[in-house]
Design goal:
The protein is α+β, with helices and mostly antiparallel strands. It has 10 helices and 4 strands, in the order E-H-E-E-E-H-H-H-H-H-H-H-H-H. The mean pLDDT is 92.
Length: 242
Amino acid sequence: MIVLYGFGPGFGLPEISPFVTKTEVQLKMAGLSHRKERAMPPASPKGQLPFIEDDGLKVADSTFIRAHIEQKYGFDFDAGLDQQQRAQAWAFERMIEHHVYWALVGARWVDPDNFAKGPAHFFDGAPADRREKLREDAQFRVAENYLLSGLGRHAPDDDIDLAMRSLLALSVQLGERPYMMGDKPCGMDATAFGALAGILTPFFSSPLRRRAEEFANLTSYVERMMGQYYPEFAWAKEREAA
């Protein structure tokens, strides 16, 4: 059986990481039996989550995990899409993972209130005399990567404006369809869902979340995907309580 290693639930989400969510949803799309275990990034061959273990083989990075599933199990996540649509789906994935994702990171890690409410608790189990230093170091490293991503070089309002252009592109692409590329989910839907749910979770309050909520079709999309792939998770109740 495939073992998926991730962070686990938190922040009002069934899985903290949008990348782990992507892989978990794709495993469900492929109908592959698997179990999930908690891990921390140093346990991964590439120092990041997710990674999977499949018959003794460890595969890290969500994109390479998808390729492994396609190659070993013969599952085509983009079945029914023509070459142009496959290219569009790939381009949207890159936009989500290299632009939208960093907006999410900024809202969680750079915003001091959200950091204190969420990521800071990753270090609760550390020795008391080192806990605050570990928190400060981790936040600094993430903020540095946020700067290197490009978004962090702009004023707070400007970086949100840029992120909103990407969300607008996703909203236009989705339109009134149930899924990003048409009437059935494809591989890119797992990526879009992971990032959008991470932005829209009621756990964090941020300008990014408030402005993302203006896209009614994206909020409905997340609710639809959550109900389909995490039916046991009380997303609707979480949203109502926010």
